[in-house]
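User: I've been trying to design a sequence by hand for this structure and keep getting stuck. Would you show me what you'd pick, starting by listing the structure so we're on the same page?

Assistant: Good idea, let's start from the same input. This is the structure you sent:
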């Protein structure tokens, strides 16, 4: 099994598909792992070198025992560790939810390693009115994972409001998704909730840095993913290199709920970036000049 090793000696499992096209790295959400990008790996590997991996705490990657080893900074540096291991200088990076947060962080602090960034379903808990509640709930959920185990927690967590659209439109896909989720390490889930989810800053805290991002960017959000709507709109406003795609009647898991629409939007974006046809926003298009 292929593994990359991080600077703090954590083994990360990854898989590759495709050939010589520009590389794409996929970063998963809290409830996902490397398997949740399968529909994208099959589609994009026809023209690109594609890599999917399990983050620290997600089997078959290593599960460090200390929550302090699960910060948002670790997730960002782990993505770079995968690229370093594979000797990839630059890649298109695509992330969902926590992975979406991660690719925005990469755009801020590792821009030289990115060809582009796609942030899908990013920003849960970033709204100022909900940040403290989000952190409190994350830490409580960590305790639940340790007390009850992943399968029991998934039964409730999998029915959170932003995931219901997936259940409604694709019950078979929804059941498969939650079956994989229930196979996760309870310790890894708990530590991720405590370290990343329970301690990460709001995306809004990074506004000044986000405004400086020069990397071509695509923001994708489902119109029924309410916690991520406002953050997605703000990311669009703050990043002059960004475009925004809103998928109708869609919740949080956009890449699996609507794989054809998601793949088409991201493929068009990446092809335009590769062709040098994804320009910075024309200042004349602003109603009010940005600060």
């Amino acid at each position: 099994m292929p593994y990359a090793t991080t600077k703090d000696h954590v083994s990360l499992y990854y898989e590759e598909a495709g050939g010589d096209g520009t590389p794409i790295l996929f970063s998963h959400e809290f409830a996902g792992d490397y398997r949740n990008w399968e529909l994208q790996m099959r589609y994009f590997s026809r023209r690109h070198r594609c890599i999917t991996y399990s983050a620290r705490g997600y089997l078959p990657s290593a599960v460090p025992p200390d929550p302090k080893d699960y910060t948002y900074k670790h997730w960002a540096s782990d993505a770079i560790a995968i690229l370093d291991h594979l000797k990839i200088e630059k890649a298109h990076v695509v992330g969902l939810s926590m992975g979406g947060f991660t690719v925005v962080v990469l755009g801020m602090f590792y821009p030289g390693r990115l060809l582009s960034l796609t942030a899908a379903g990013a920003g849960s808990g970033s709204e100022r009115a909900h940040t403290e509640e989000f952190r409190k709930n994350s830490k409580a959920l960590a305790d639940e994972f340790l007390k009850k185990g992943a399968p029991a927690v998934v039964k409730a967590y999998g029915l959170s409001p932003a995931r219901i659209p997936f259940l409604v439109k694709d019950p078979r896909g929804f059941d498969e998704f939650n079956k994989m989720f229930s196979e996760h390490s309870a310790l890894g889930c708990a530590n991720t909730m405590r370290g990343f989810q329970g301690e990460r800053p709001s995306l809004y805290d990074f506004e000044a840095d986000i405004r400086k991002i020069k990397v071509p960017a695509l923001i994708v959000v489902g119109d029924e993913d309410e916690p991520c709507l406002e953050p997605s709109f703000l990311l669009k406003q703050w990043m002059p290199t960004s475009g925004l795609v809103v998928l109708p009647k869609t919740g949080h898991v956009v890449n699996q709920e609507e794989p054809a629409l998601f793949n088409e939007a991201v493929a068009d974006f990446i092809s335009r970036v590769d062709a040098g046809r994804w320009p910075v926003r024309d200042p004349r298009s602003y109603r009010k000049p940005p600060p």
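That's my pick for every position. To get oriented when you compare it with your attempt: The mean pLDDT is 96. The beta strands are 3-5, 11-17, 23-27, 49-53, 91-96, 114-120, 217-222, 242-247.
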